[in-house]
Design brief:
By secondary structure, this protein is an alpha/beta fold. The chain contains 13 helices and twelve strands. The strands form two sheets. Strands 2-1-3-4-5-11 form a six-stranded parallel sheet, with helices on both faces. Strands 7-6-8-9-10-12 form a six-stranded mixed sheet, sandwiched between helices. It is elongated, with a radius of gyration of 29 Å. It starts with a helix and ends in an 11-residue tail after the last strand.
Length: about 375
């Protein structure tokens, strides 16, 4: 007996053994639809036949149309047929037919920083409110990985791209995306005539932090700087504010990656030295929280002996027991502005307009980690 014949016999025997008795459900069926697994999926034609209506009428119902285009009675017939057949519309096929998918590709460069997770969530909510769906992927702060993500988005026919603080260069993004609308967050030095830029005025945020500490009587204010997009503007704002407030001789900048482990090691060295500052302004909240951890391990009291200010106002900053003073980015406004910029291009009115460059003002949220300078 040949192998194909043997396989055929085994399959036939197995199917007959698994076939349900009358009134029983099949173990090979999909419990959500009752349809046998592997069976042909029902089509819109099947739904029309079951409901006794035309295919075009089924299409109208699936698109949410009602009277006067579709009577309540026929709408109910179609809904019942859809439920009985377990029909699920093929979104990709519908998108190809209409040349629309309703998808926005969202690249989150660094999910280790809660700020980007919160911003991505806000983008997703705003996209849904405007009738679109956000598809998210992480870039891991790696340009090669981000390039693969962008390529995958484009192959999936997203209608626009949201890039949150990408590591990809402006040239690479412009070269890759073609005519697909793109908005970039957190890259003030990004230059492209066709890419919209939205973010926070990072330099202003740094100035707010320094001014707050100066008003509390601090002079020896150190800054833990970073390497991610936006970090340079925060450092520049810090240095400018220190000079403006006649604290230029106290400028002290130490570099760090924007991670908790790197921030902790840098903070240990900074706070453990002989010239310990009375205040630290950190490049982001993740690093600021690491400064608090280092201070606790070194038995330095916050805020009595050391004031700490972060940047971003992630949800962890406001937790009871943390109470981090920080520069708050307007997350919801950033998301609304980004999605709005994209949709103005997608939906025609702004298809050929010049690139948008919007830097939204941050605010300072004062909590329990800042107080008067020691001795004041």
């Amino acid at each position: 007996m040949s192998v194909p014949m043997l396989v055929s016999m085994l399959v036939s025997t197995t199917v007959s053994m698994l076939a349900p008795m009358p009134g029983e459900s099949s173990p090979m069926s999909d419990p959500s639809t009752g349809r046998r697994r592997g069976a042909r999926a029902p089509t819109i034609i099947d739904v029309a036949a079951r409901a006794g209506v035309s295919k075009s009428l089924v299409s109208l119902v699936l698109r949410g149309k009602g009277p006067p285009l579709v009577s309540a009675e026929r709408r109910e017939l179609v809904r019942r047929a859809v439920a009985e057949l377990g029909y699920r519309p093929n979104g990709m096929a519908r998108g190809l037919a209409q040349q629309r998918t309703g998808l926005l590709g969202v690249l989150v460069s660094d999910l280790r920083n809660p700020f980007f997770a919160e911003l991505a969530e806000s983008v997703d909510a705003e996209a849904a409110r405007r009738g679109y769906r956000a598809v998210l992927a992480a870039g891991h702060r790696n340009a090669e990985r981000e390039q693969l993500v962008v390529n995958d988005f484009l192959e999936s026919r997203v209608e626009a791209l949201v890039l949150l603080s990408p590591a990809l260069s402006a040239a690479a993004i412009t070269r890759t995306v073609g005519g697909v609308p793109v908005v970039v967050e957190g890259r003030p030095t990004f230059r492209s005539a066709r890419v919209d830029l939205v973010g926070t005025d990072d330099a202003l945020g740094a100035e707010l932090a320094v001014r707050h500490l100066v008003e509390l009587g601090h002079s020896d204010i150190a800054h833990i700087a970073g390497t991610a997009p936006g970090a340079a503007a925060r450092r520049k704002g810090y240095e400018r504010a220190m000079r403006t407030h006649r604290r230029g001789e106290y400028v002290q900048v130490v570099g760090s990656d924007e991670t908790d482990s790197a921030g902790y090691e840098v903070a240990r060295r900074l706070l453990g030295g002989p010239d310990r500052p009375t205040a630290v302004f950190a490049v982001n909240d993740v690093v600021a929280l690491s400064v608090l951890a280092a201070a606790e391990d070194l038995e330095i009291r916050v805020p009595e002996e050391l004031s700490v200010v972060g940047f971003d106002d992630i949800y962890l900053a406001g937790l009871r027991g943390v109470g981090l003073t920080t520069v708050a980015q307007p997350v919801d406004e950033i998301a609304t502005t980004m999605v709005g910029a994209l949709l103005s291009r997608i939906e025609g009115s702004g298809a050929n307009r010049p690139a948008v460059r919007q830097w939204l003002p941050p605010t300072l949220t004062v909590r329990r980690t800042t107080a008067a300078a020691p001795g004041d």
